[in-house]
Specification:
11 helices, single chain, six-stranded mixed sheet, 2-enoyl-CoA Hydratase, Chain A, domain 1, three-stranded mixed sheet, alpha/beta, globular
Length: about 240
Amino acid sequence: MIGYRRDGDVVILELQRPDRRNALSTELCTAVRNGVEQADADGARIVVITGQGSSFCAGADLTGDAFPDAFGETLEGMLASIERASVPVVAAINGPAVGAGTQLAIACDLRVVAPEAFFEIPSTRLGIAVSNWTINRLASLAGGGVARTILLGGERVYSEQAFTCGLANKLGDLDVATQWAQSITELAPLALKHLKLVFNDNGTHDDPTPEQSAAFEAAWSSEDMKEARRARAEKRKPKFLGR
């Protein structure tokens, strides 16, 4: 389900569910978290995360266990492990990064994006809310305008636009990401650790207000969310009523 390969001081983690476009299950989230923590404990200088096949990550596996409460906690734990790692983590985004795939990408410190890749968070088409962390992290990386395009507008942002706004740090494939990672291993690790701590101390983990928490819970318990799931199963557009 996940590949773990070390090349000198670089560890490459590969999501290996190409039949599901590397969609995240509880098991895969746990494997990514364990891989990042193992690489950090084993003294790697940098971690690269990529996907097998033509997709980076298609998001949460909606055919599996993605909606129970336990999945959300496991997903958050995976994202937190990437932030907590003492070394930089690079996302080599080889294809579409959808929903939780975009969350995985923005949890990483740097993003190298292939020309055919795009970012998308279709939460409003699924009748669900995303975390404050996701909204604020995306806005801090891509700018408020692009974050609103993705979240409020429900649109995809492709690689060139992602590079222009700063969501992508470089354009290229896994080889480009790996070469960059190798060059970063030559930099001072304690200085890199300090930079990562400061960059991640940007307010994205502030507690939501009571109004935000209520709105989040309302979306996740709504009839609209149930309608979105029915529409997906019946291969039709959902009819949202705001309740």
